[in-house]
Amino acid sequence: MNFSTLAASRYTTKSYDSDKKIPMETILQLKEILRLSPSSINSQPWQFTFVSNETLKGKLAGVSYFNEQKITEASHLVVFSAIDNIPLFERRIQETLPEGSVGYYNQFVKPGSASEIKSWLQHQVYLSLGFFLAACASLEIDSTPMEGIQNEKYKEILNLEHYQPLFAVAIGYRNPEDNNQPSIKAKSRLSYEQTFEII
Questions:
Q1: In angstroms, rounded to a whole number, what is the distance separating the alpha carbons of residues 106 and 43?
Q2: Which uninterrupted H or E stretch holds 26?
Q3: Which of 19, 54, 169, 180 has the greatest number of beta carbons closer than 10 A?
Q4: Beta carbons of 179 and 14 less than 8 angstroms apart
Q5: In sequence order, which ranges of 40-85 are alpha helices (DSSP H)?
Q6: In this structure, what are the phi and psi dihedrals at residue 164, rounded to the nearest 5 degrees?
């Protein structure tokens, strides 16, 4: 299946088949794909938490607003977090990145305020989201990206230190009766004229 076909067929899943679980070898593939995600200067300021334990998944579902059912039904929940300890991040890149990359950070990112630096770090995590959703589609895994989570509650439940949860993605296999799938509900997108500008 080519990428255009994948883009047309993937959708935000609203209902999962709770009896179908993603095989471990597929989870390992997804983890490796996330590890290879792109980021500015190869900064990799992220942590990805894969949750399959039903009790823990239930606790996270309970602090996820209107996404509770999706998380409960899904095979796994993947939590995307950005490092929020700037000194720790700076020590890490000093140890792992080439001089030119560190120089870029020191010249263009570090002079900003703490909130501006953290915003830059968080933007890198969002790059990995697009990569991940495409990977799921290529492996015939359904997905639901969601910012509708209580971030501080997630941090507390997952006992995350130095990382701030930004969003989560439920993954699994669709309920055949899910009304949001493209075969039932056509995708709605802006027209070419509204989307692109040719210069």
A1: 13
A2: helix 24-35
A3: 169
A4: yes
A5: 54-61, 68-73
A6: -115, 120
CA dist., res. 141 & res. 116, Å (int):
35
Write down all domains in the chain, each with its CATH number in brackets: 3-195 (3.40.109.10)
Tokens at 161, concatenated? 């230190």
Cα-flanking dihedrals φ and ψ of residue 24, to 5°?
-60, -35
Among 172, 170, 165, 118, smallest CA distance to 144 is for 170
Q: Which amino acid is at 69?
A: Q
Q: pLDDT tens, 97-141?
A: 999 999 999 999 999 999 999 999 999 999 999 999 999 999 999
Residue identified by tokens 């709605």 is 188
The letter for the amino acid at 155 is: K
